[in-house]
Amino acid sequence: MDRNSQTNTGKYAADISSIREAQLRIDAFIHKTPVLTSETLNSISGRKLFFKCECFQKGGAFKCRGACNAIFSLDDDQAAKGVVTHSSGNHAAALALAAKLRGIPAYIVVPKNAPKCKVENVKRYGGQVTWSEPTMNSRESVAAKVVQETGAVLIHPYNDGRIISGQGTVALELLEQAPQIDTIIVPISGGGLISGVALAAKAINPSIRILAAEPQGANDAAQSKTAGEIITLPETNTIADGLRAFLGNLTWPVVRDLVDDVITVEDKEIVEAMKLCYEILKVAVEPSGAIGLAAVLSDSFRTNPKWKDCSNVGIVLSGGNVDLTVLWDSLRL
Amino acid sequence: MDRNSQTNTGKYAADISSIREAQLRIDAFIHKTPVLTSETLNSISGRKLFFKCECFQKGGAFKCRGACNAIFSLDDDQAAKGVVTHSSGNHAAALALAAKLRGIPAYIVVPKNAPKCKVENVKRYGGQVTWSEPTMNSRESVAAKVVQETGAVLIHPYNDGRIISGQGTVALELLEQAPQIDTIIVPISGGGLISGVALAAKAINPSIRILAAEPQGANDAAQSKTAGEIITLPETNTIADGLRAFLGNLTWPVVRDLVDDVITVEDKEIVEAMKLCYEILKVAVEPSGAIGLAAVLSDSFRTNPKWKDCSNVGIVLSGGNVDLTVLWDSLRL
């Protein structure tokens, strides 16, 4: 079953129907993650903040939602040969976990610079690791070789309607848990999460604002929005290892049309936000996971009159897989 | 209003009625904290574990429950003069927070060796700090002086029926959130939390097991249970700064009668459990908060045939206030 067999018939790779369908499909396999609030952080930010804690999701990140939706969308014959992907971490672990739940093999191509804890997650869930060089070319060519050898289905980390639909379930839950939310801030990388969230949230509440949070050192989405077309970068430079990918042809149209703005932040703001998550919220987030809080605290957001009336802000803490040594080294900066 | 004016008329300083009354009294002021589960930790422990995340409670620890119950039990005349306590941290911050909510002054006597982040919490909530030496004698005499000078009401951190009743609301919530629980493991120090939990949980389900988790270097509760009377220690030596107090005359009878066993663990087991909380659960806990997980993973618990059929185990992650440098130094051990 490919994405066309889902109920989505609209102009984007997913829609509210395919997202609701995904919610039913993955319900038994994922955690409904809690929403935390903190009066201290409300006071610091001058807004009411609602933290959707996807760091507590299975595998430590929201990625399990899309991976389960993709894998449980496969028909039995396709599934039997297994799945393959290339990923620096959270999607890899999520795909391994979802494959384990379905009882099929997962072949994971991992770039050599992936965080150790994320590779350990892949192995913990029984994923079969093949190493590649860190470049996208190497990742893709090694993955193609695995597909050829095994007949496994390639599941792209974000440029896939089933993945986008699965990630969109974050917004269904969040708006049920905190219906007063008028703005959602979502980390942006390849755009799978924010596409799903935007499609779901704007279908439920057309006036809700969807803002992307992006590292300055990997600001392809901000550049793409300005240019009106997909821009990729020759290299990226950010502590947020989960936010180094570029938009794809399925996520770009959603980001172009439904994401109200991209807020770019410096790595030092990400680190400061991680520290606040740790010290105030008591939640372990990875750099990519903390970027939404960094955005809401950034000068560019605070001083922009467009966002003055963003009073009830949902922030997706997207993941919590961080090596303790990395955390420590960054907090000492 | 002192504790006798509550509905409790039983043999202990609190009972299920005073605990339910506390729940109504504090409902508007506290967080209903989530219960997290992890299949990875289930697999490591060989049980189903339910983590009651009091580290996400206001002030970063369960202490806010008892403090709110005590402060909102005071009549207006008593309250107007404020409250005073001596505490190394979480009770101090909680009392300052609860006093702030009621709009009354809080005078907090803090021993000089209290963790920095806990003292910062006291100040954040507007508590007026007076320093004492680390000894109990100094803490008590400085507090007595403050009482004399201000007329404020002394609110003991644990040896108080209102405090015990407030802490017992943890168990009311937990058994509503995960009714299948057959065992609850609770950190023990002065015994306020475990007394409240035991009184509530055994009233709801008389066959539930209540186990205390205690550091080897502050094992007064284990020694007291063996001796059949309160034992205090000349000194304590544990990383768990929240677990260095001794049982009081109101908590001891409950611990003696209703706590099924005390599991003692080494500091290195506490540190290992903190690491698991951080890396697997993505929750920042302080050493005292992680001790329940340390207990369920300890050899003495695993190999004891008495606990073989503890299948669904509630673990109270009691608090999350830890200095990042302390966390790091302990994890490097």
Summary tags:
homodimer, 333 residues, alpha/beta, 6-stranded mixed beta sheet, 4-stranded parallel beta sheet, 15 helices, 46% helix, 14% strand, disordered N terminus
Rg for CA atoms of chain A: 18 Å
What is the H/E order of chain A? HEHEHHEHEHEHEHEHEHHEHHHEH
Oligomerization: homodimer
Of all chain pairs, the largest interface belongs to: A-B, 25 and 25 residues
> How many beta strands in the DSSP annotation of chain A?
10
The coarse overall form of chain A would be globular
Helix content of chain A: 40-55%
Supply the helix-strand structural class of chain A. Answer: alpha/beta
Number of helices of chain A: 15
Main sheet of chain A, how many strands, which sense, barrel? 6 strands, mixed
Average of pLDDT of chain A: 93
List the uncertain runs of chain A: 1-5
Strand content of chain A: 5-15%
Tell me the span between the first and last alpha carbons of chain A. Answer: 49 Å
- Strand ordering within the main sheet of chain A: 1-2-10-7-8-9
Question: How would you summarize what this structure contains?
Answer:
Chain A has helices spanning 16-26, 39-45, 63-71, 76-80, 90-102, 116-124, 136-150, 161-177, 192-204, 220-227, 252-258, 267-281, 287-297, 299-302, 324-331; strands at 35-36, 48-53, 83-86, 106-111, 128-132, 153-154, 183-187, 209-215, 261-265, 312-317. With 333 residues, the first copy, chain A, is an alpha/beta fold.
